[in-house]
Amino acid sequence: MFDTLSDRLQLTLGDLGRAKRLDEDAVNKAMREIRLALLEADVNFQVVKDFVAGVKAAALGEDILKGLDAGQQVVKLVHDRLAELMGSGDSKLAFGRPPTVILMTGLQGSGKTTTSAKLALHLRRQGKRPGLVAADLQRPAAIDQLEQLGRQIAIPVYRTDTSDPVRAAAEGLERAKGDGLDVVIVDTAGRLHVDEALMDELARVRDAVKPLNVLLVLDAMTGQEAVNVAEAFQRRIAFDGVVLTKLDGDARGGAALSVKAITGKPIKFASVGEKLDQLEVFHPDRMASRILGMGDVLTLIEKAEAAVAEDEQAEMERRMRSGEFTFDDFLKSYRMVRRMGPLKGVLKMLPGVGKQLDGIDVDEGQMARVEAIVLSMTPQERRLPHLINGPRRRRIAAGSGTSIDEVNKLLAARKQMQKMMKQLGKGKLPALPPELSG
Ligand code: GDP
């Protein structure tokens, strides 16, 4: 996500942050580089101009240059302004007297149908009872797709056999209401381009279901084109917020950084993959941190929490404190990390780790091998790893299709982790293992 932009900004700001003293020339030079980086990221020209002018004025105007940590302060300034650019204030959905209606709009292929299902799942995890209404009658396959997605996550989907999208939406809503659902997400038709017919139909569907939230789904990978689409929608259908999709494939970030400034509407959600749990609440400040390689520990913690049931968490914590860390625990924590998504994405959220992963292939296959090794141990061996002697190591290696060397490495890694856990349990920050530090 935003890799190209991120690289360039980090390069510029890295130099700036390390500078002992800063003068006006140094700031001007950095601002020129930031300007270029943003333009290359396909951020709207006017947005870039205003942004750079704002940062520059603040950096030169607020006695920052006189301070000892001038570089760091300018970096912080860029961070805060980036966050502001992507939106400040409330990005929450509105909820009213149930059922709360959410109208999903956007062009075909933007990810509207997938996002509808993702949003339903997200809301159910927050304790709501959501349902999906199929009103995309342009593509017959869209209704089947929505039904299929609904089945995958056990969310009811309402379809009506009619060619009138307004009727399909209104009837679907009535039935969902009758079933006692408290949030109804209406998936509407998209076209390849914004056109009058699409806008007319949308306006009629909107008037029929009276949504409390109108969300515009935009494909981040289309950059400025996404912003143009947003402007075109804005003129006809007032939307309340944006869902940016395919951020996982967006190296540049132009849409994310322009859409709020151009339309005045916040980005409410970010979709970061095809899987149904790959929808994140959009936090501008955290996104700014990620772009600048400062990590996003808060999102990481939330992901970890979502991946582990509460009782499991408490149990893990207790065991950690007591310094126990068997291979069963090892396996559990491994699986927890895997449930959080692709490993590289997870690691990148740690402060300072982002850049270091460049060019390094985080080997997901390696993780599968580790799991295979642990699963080839007997329950007793997992509980009491010191039992694992030479012959047992050979057996485990053969059973898991790995080598004795790999088994040995894993045994050493568990020991290392146990030591770290013990230190954590005592409230100390663990020392990094030698191969990771320095
Ligand atoms: P619609 O025509 O707007 O309803 O779009 P769909 O929901 O059918 O999505 C179009 C394609 O984009 C599908 O193949 C989705 O799997 C894919 N897609 C949607 N969201 C994302 C995302 O966040 N990341 C990636 N990589 N693919 C996505």
Structural class: alpha/beta
Q: Please report which band the strand proportion falls in: under 5%, 5-15%, 15-25%, 25-35%, 35-45% or over 45%.
A: 5-15%
The overall number of domains is: 3
Give the overall average pLDDT.
Answer: 83
Q: Could you tell me the CATH topology label of the largest domain.
A: Rossmann fold
Coarse morphology: flat
- What level of helicity do the residues show? 55-70%
CATH C-level name of the largest domain = Alpha Beta
What is the rounded distance between the termini? 27 Å
CATH superfamily of the largest domain: P-loop containing nucleotide triphosphate hydrolases
Oligomeric state, counting identical vs distinct chains: single chain
From the coordinates shown, what is the CATH architecture of the largest domain? 3-Layer(aba) Sandwich
**Low-pLDDT stretches:** 429-438
Order of helices and strands: HHHHEHEHEHEHEHEHEEHHHHHHHHHH
Largest sheet, described in full?
Answer: 8 strands, mixed
Q: How big is the Rg?
A: 25 Å
Topology summary:
Elements lengths: L2 H16 L5 H17 L4 H17 L8 H16 L14 E7 L5 H14 L4 E6 L4 H14 L3 E2 L6 H14 L4 E6 L7 H14 L3 E7 L4 H13 L4 E5 L8 H10 L3 E5 L7 E3 L2 H8 L5 H11 L2 H13 L4 H13 L3 H6 L4 H4 L7 H12 L3 H5 L6 H11 L3 H22 L13
Parallel strand pairs: 1-4, 1-5, 2-3, 2-4, 5-6, 6-7
Antiparallel strand pairs: 7-8
Helix pairs in contact: 1-2, 1-4, 2-3, 3-4, 4-11, 5-6, 7-8, 9-10, 13-20, 17-19, 19-20
Bound molecules: guanosine-5'-diphosphate (GDP).
Describe this structure in a few short sentences.
With 438 residues, this protein is α/β, with parallel strands linked by helices.
